[in-house]
């Protein structure tokens, strides 16, 4: 009799716990915790990068309070001829409203950015009449990946893997320095305009 009552009580407790756990969305709990961490510490402002002329640039000094589009670029990629003109249009349209575009040349994808920093600068400035915030050539994947790009990948995960898959992967960063979205190389810059406008209005 005692054993039967004990087992019955245990079963009732188990059923109650199981019912309670069904109502808990653990994904929401995890996301809420992560978002709190992002708001507190995880911003691009903690990083330094060399510009195309090899001068150190503190991200917090130039991008605080601005929306930033960060892109890994290449001069000889099939996406080059569409991305640069479209980014130019976005910058001309929204620069005075708080948009910055930070371009990081990278030669890791089929050696499509083989030139020197000054050759890259001349190509972008003269061929496209485009003057973004241009940085020195870096790695975005592997043991020599720039810390800023490691941070971006950790904050905004990729499809299947977090590694940058090709040239012209794009990250949007809000006015608080927090990466809020990641876009594939096939996502043309003009498609980001609605999100950029929304971030500028926040």
Question: What's this, in brief?
Answer:
The chain is an alpha/beta fold and 202 residues long. The protein is built from seven helices and seven strands. Helices cover 43% and strands 15% of the residues.
Secondary-structure topology with pairs:
Elements (H helix, E strand, L loop, with lengths): L1 H21 L3 H15 L7 E3 L5 E3 H5 L3 E7 L6 H15 L4 E7 L11 H12 L4 E2 L12 H9 L14 E4 L5 E5 L9 H9 L1
Parallel strand pairs: 3-4, 4-5
Antiparallel strand pairs: 1-2, 3-6, 6-7
Pfam families: GSHPx
GO molecular function: peroxidase activity
Protein name: Glutathione peroxidase
Task: Report on this structure.
- Belongs to the glutathione peroxidase family.
- Pfam families: GSHPx.
- GO terms for molecular function: peroxidase activity.
- This is Glutathione peroxidase.
- The chain folds into two domains: about 1-40; about 45-200, Glutaredoxin, CATH 3.40.30.10.
- It has helices at about 1-20, 25-40, 60-65, 80-95, 115-130, 145-155, 195-200, and strands at about 50, 55-60, 65-75, 100-105, 135, 170-175, 180-185.
- The strands form two sheets. Strands 5-4-3-6-7 form a five-stranded mixed sheet. A two-stranded antiparallel ribbon has the order 1-2.
- It has about 200 residues and is α/β, with parallel strands linked by helices.
């Amino acid at each position: 009799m005692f054993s039967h009552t004990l087992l019955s009580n245990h079963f009732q407790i188990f059923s109650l716990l199981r019912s309670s756990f069904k109502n808990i969305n653990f994904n929401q709990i995890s996301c809420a915790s992560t978002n709190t961490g992002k708001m507190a510490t995880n911003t691009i402002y903690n990083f330094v990068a060399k510009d195309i002329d090899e001068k150190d640039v503190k991200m917090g000094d130039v991008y605080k309070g601005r929306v930033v589009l960060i892109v890994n670029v290449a001069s000889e990629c099939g996406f080059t001829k569409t991305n640069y003109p479209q980014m130019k249009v976005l910058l001309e349209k929204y620069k005075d409203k708080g948009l910055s575009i930070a371009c990081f040349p990278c030669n890791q994808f089929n050696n499509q950015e083989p030139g020197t920093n000054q050759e890259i600068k001349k190509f972008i400035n003269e061929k496209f009449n485009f003057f973004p915030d241009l940085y020195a050539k870096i790695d975005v994947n592997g043991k020599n990946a720039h810390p800023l790009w490691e941070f971006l990948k950790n904050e905004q995960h990729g499809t299947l893997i977090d590694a940058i898959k090709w040239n012209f992967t794009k990250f949007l960063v809000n006015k608080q320095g927090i990466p809020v979205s990641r876009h594939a190389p096939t996502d043309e810059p003009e498609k980001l305009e609605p999100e950029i406008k929304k971030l500028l209005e926040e």
